[in-house]
From TrEMBL, chain A:
Keyword flag Nucleotide-binding: yes
Taxonomic lineage from the root: Bacteria, Pseudomonadati, Pseudomonadota, Alphaproteobacteria, Hyphomicrobiales
Domain of life: Bacteria
Domain ABC transporter residue range list: 4-252
Organism: Bradyrhizobium nitroreducens
Function: Involved in beta-(1-->2)glucan export. Transmembrane domains (TMD) form a pore in the inner membrane and the ATP-binding domain (NBD) is responsible for energy generation.
GO terms, molecular function: ATP binding; ATP hydrolysis activity
Protein name, as recorded: ABC transporter
Automatic annotation (TrEMBL), chain B:
The protein's name in its UniProt record: ABC transporter permease
CDD domains named among the record's database cross-references: TM_PBP1_LivM_like
Keyword DNA-binding tagged: no
Topology class, membrane: Multi-pass membrane protein
Source organism per UniProt: Bradyrhizobium nitroreducens
Amino acid sequence: MSYFRAENLSLHFGGLKAVDAVSFAVEKGEILSIIGPNGAGKSSIFNLISRIYRPTSGRIFFEDQDITEEPPYDIARLGIARTFQNIELFENATVLSNLLVGRHRHSTTQLWQELLFLPSVRANEKVHRRRVEQVIEFLDLEPYRDKLISGLPYGVRKVIELARALCSEPKLILLDEPSSGLNVEETDDMSFWIRDMKSELGITVLMVEHDMSLVNRVSDRVIALNYGRVLAMGSPAEVQQHPDVVAAYLGA
Amino acid sequence: MRFLFKTDYEDDIKLFPHSGYLVSYGVLLALLLIAPYLLSSYLMSQLVFVCIYATVGVALLILTGFTGQASLGHAAFLAIGAYTAAYLQKYNVPFPVYFLAAGGLTGIIGAMVGFPALRLTGIYLVIATISFALIVEEILARWESVTNGNEGMRVKTLSLLGVTVPRDSPTFYYLCLAVLVLTIIGTLNLLRSPTGRAFVAIRDSETAARSMGVNVALYKVKSFAISAAITGFAGVLFAHKLSFISPEMFTLQLSIEFIIVILIGGAFSLHGAVLGAIFIVMIDPFLTYLKDDMPGMIAGIAATFGAGPATAGSIKSNVAAFASLNGLKGAIYGIIIVLFVLFEPLGLYGRWLKIKLFFQLFPLYKRATFKRQKIYVKSERNR
């Protein structure tokens, strides 16, 4: 049984088939990239997994559990975190509180305890804070801890979004175009972090990406999509040479 | 300027980041405690209203400022708290019991308002909360067996543990102050724990909050309930302070006054709620003063510039007629809101921060420090 599995996943908007009977599996501890031209349905697959959209048909399994009908907020609780293509940070909050929201799935305290800030809440807060600090160290975010998001440059925001996802200590992380808008150096850093996430933190990575050099550097396997369908699946080199993929990108 | 060197995670958690806060808040608290011996009875009465308005302001701030759910229905929550107190008082229920009951009941009703509000955002939520306020107002006027209808209800003098506490006694003021301080402390506690961060997350991006595991619907309802409950507590104090309540006291205008409290104070800080409360409570005597004295003043100015007695007299009567126009207060409130939104979007507290920073950085202060950057990166597609 594979770790994460999508079976015949479809998402139709009226007659438009954004995702059309897509099946794939992710093995534990691998980095799987999804590539494809614009509008191929890559981000839609992510939105289906994190339940922003409800699939028209098909099922999603994670750790042998059917998660197709789980409410969106439980997806994170199961250990699936994600980042967004266009950055969805909490703009008017500090970096630290953004990262602490990432810890939400681990919070156990009740409202009345929090109103009184009982010692148990304080102890929990310290644990959260320590975990956040580990992620800050991992991603070199020390200079930004107390800064407001609204004043930070795009590249840093992108890293903070990754950090927020890591703070939830996910088992599977969905990265939606981690390198979009980043310069060459930042993309290099990102590729190191993605590999470290796999090797040091043991996180399985599912990634949508356009930058083929990044895909080649980090991916164990690649899936190519076009018009909501799987064109090819395999190692990065295999997929890039696949005639259908070449046709989709360059025209037949 | 003071630089804080943090050496412990506790430094990020504690309420007072450094000893300077303890000193300034200590002085403030001491001044507030000796206020009854310093201020005239009129100002004391105004100060009680400041406490009550600030409590409602903090409540509204939790809902609007932190969770991002606008509400123009807080007058109704205040009314529910006030009427619950007045009604239970008829059956000789002791103060602590009806105080808690009023807060609890208002909290439950707040949660019930929160449920339909889950599907509404922005202006539609405002409309829904206005409708709720109008419904409550109407119920208060019609449900005569309980609320005594438009004749209103008399609220007996507060009696706490066998001691009568008249509404203009220092004890009553201390009670209101205690409720305000406890509300503020509770809110600060909330903000430094997961629930408060979930509120802020919902305000800034519901999609991201959801994908981080925040049950958005549950937390919105919680926010409504907490906000309503605090307003209910304030309602009990409000009823005691006025000693008489009737439906026309809890109109839309009162809800708008609460919005002004947080808008003018500064929409994202508790300091702002208190400053806004001071502003709104003190603007009333100021307007009355203008109404009484402005006609004479303007006529006097006109006279010094050579207007004849007849002209001066007609100026005086015209200005007096204008100053006592119906709805002038509402118009002035409207103008104040518009001016603040346009020129001081961070409110009075934002202005204070700017002044403070000016002196801290002198002479290097830059006006652009507080300018909002416009960055268009946020996706609206998933909403």
